[in-house]
Amino acid sequence: VERAGAIRDVRHQHAWAAFWGLVTLSFAYGVFHAAGPGHGKVVLSAYLLTHRTRLKRGLIMATASAALQGIVAIALVETFIVLMGWTHRQAFGAVGTMESASYALITIVGIGLAFRPLQTLWRGRNGAGGHHDPHAGHSHAVLPDATDARSRSIAAVVLSIGIRPCSGAVLVLLFAHALQIRAAGIGAVGAMSFGTALTVASLALLAVYARRAASSIANLDGQHLENTAKLIALVGGVLLAALGEIGRAAWRERE
Description:
Strand content: under 5%
Shape: elongated
């Protein structure tokens, strides 16, 4: 309601003060909305807790997923309203389709992430590739992702989160479009994405440090560290796949 009132002020007063009020409210909404329950934060936290990832990459994933959500919201509204001439109701309904696609992608990503450690553990159990690793006793033993969170996995996780636009962002864009102040709506969504990124990045930071602390407490080395890390990665992939299926089931019940 507050954001709708701020949008009306921008429309009727054409004042920079009203515009910055809208941006501030949208930023605050992004911060506090991201602090609540949501599949994006759960997916990112599950990935970071179960896969060895540098702090910088964790923060990049958090920022990129929040930014992508804003970009998708803008692209969805601009495409369906401006280019295709859909009604606002039809455009907002497309958010549900994107949500379903997001959950399906999360399931696929989870299966993909679980496959590699499962394959490696199975080969090790059957003696395949069981040659001695000269570096096994050193601190740089191989962890879940041998290349420290491969780029394709990171991109897939970010896409599975970002492909579903925030419904609040879509509503702001539709309302701004109806009042013919599209630029103000886009600016508000940008501020909302920035606020969301700050909160999700904080959660990503906690997840990365929590994983590091758990690794230090476990105090494993050599082959035990490698096998444990692969098992954790396997559990993380299965967890993500399960989250995707649970999300899809919940979405179907709402429809």
